[in-house]
Amino acid sequence: MANWFKKEHKKPRLTEEIYQTFRKSEDFTCQFNSQAIRPYWICYQRNIIDTQTLNEQILPYLLYTKVYSIRELKGILPNKEIVITNKINDIENKLLQGSIMIQFHKHDGYCALIDAVKFEKRSVSTPEVEFSVNGPKEAFVESLDTNLNLIRKRLPVPELRVKELTVGKLSRTKVAVLYIEDIVEKENVQTVLQRLHDFEYDSINDTSFISEIIADNTNSPFPQVLETERPDRTASVLVEGKVVVLSEGSPQAIIAPTTLVEFFSSFEDYFMNWYIGSFVRMLRLFSVIFSILITPIYVAVLTYHHELIPRDLLATLVISRREVPLPPILEALFLEITIELLREAGARLPAKVGQTIGIVGGIVIGTASVEAGLTSNVLLIMIALAALASFTTPVYTMGNTIRLIRFPFLLLAQLWGLLGIVMCFCFMLTHLIGLTSLGRPFLEPLYPLRIRDLKDAFVRLPFSQLSKRPTFVRPGDTVRFSEKKAEKKKDIDE
């Protein structure tokens, strides 16, 4: 193909302007073919186009077909995505998105843009962050079209709406906002769209950027939108009347509005018997409370409230701390920071090495610190249990929040003992009461109290009891199914 092109021909106006814009980029090709029946100029970014499409569906037709005008290409080429335009900005955007520009003559005011983008994507794999033993084993990938396909496959209804827009001044990331028209509250959709339109940022590389864009309070450590990699969970929340945001290049979906309780419920809870699902959900909530409070209570009791320690346990604590020269707060901070360092190191290293570092490092450092007299073995056990309990959080972003808020509790426990823990809890509760997600209360169904929504909050009742959609999202259609019909179970011979 290279011997067909000669560059000494005078470029048309549009081609010349495009060439001047992209000529410093060595992956840009702009050449003239004089051996075709109708000579033409062709320009494209060669690293983002599909060469098979170029060689099989474009060049043969241009070489051997007589074309009189640029508009005739729509009836000649088999490609469906052909745009005829003379706007420089549109041409530049299309070229950067994988289109091929064709122009015949220097006096032509228009050119043809043919879509020939090359998609590099990985295949659909199993969830890694929200893995479940039961249920589907599909997870989102970095391709927006593939993710939309996974959702459409689960919700084949015409009411499912997809609004596409471009965000990021330089990245020009394609973003899709999904909702079910007859169910969703229109105000929620407009809020998400308005915040995406109003926010100006040069590069949007992941949905995590969008999470901060549409959050009500960006200064809060608590995430106000839910991120998931599971298409089944995404389809389920769309049916509830929520809004979902997908982004090109990101394997995560954003769900809004959401509540605090949803961060401690796994979608696998719905694949179990409701007794087991409710037990596991309550176990997670207890684990989170234990993870946050156990170390501050240890510091507060040993520093200010010795009388609260039972006599039998007091002897054990005295023996364990007999050779520890550090006060309880420094002892606790040393172990907490060590655990965080091991966790961060394990996350940043390759998978096999990271597991080894976490296990071996924890055993070696823990044993050495006790033998060296820097920490007590009782606190070491508490810290290990607290770290283990924090891993039960099914949503990774909330797990990071729990890791952070342990330290304010620990510092206030050192300053004022149990009173400091109560004060820190009051500050946190006040903050959570004022927190919202797309303007909806973040502590619902506790504040404001919604009795109906408690059926799927701390426990999960049987599906026959979940006939109504959540109140806080203000769905257009509140009824999911008839509760009376769901309770009737007839045999075939009745």
Automatic annotation (TrEMBL):
InterPro entries: Spore_Ger (IPR004995), UPF0353/GerABKA_families (IPR050768). It comes from the Bacteria. GO terms for cellular component: plasma membrane. Keywords: Membrane, Transmembrane, Transmembrane helix. It is found in: Cell membrane; Membrane. The keyword Transmembrane applies. Signal peptide: none annotated. The chain crosses the membrane at residues 282-304, 378-397, 409-433. Its main location: membrane. It is a multi-pass membrane protein. GO terms for biological process: spore germination. Coiled coil: none annotated. Pfam families: GerA. Belongs to the GerABKA family. This is Spore germination protein. It comes from Bacillus timonensis.
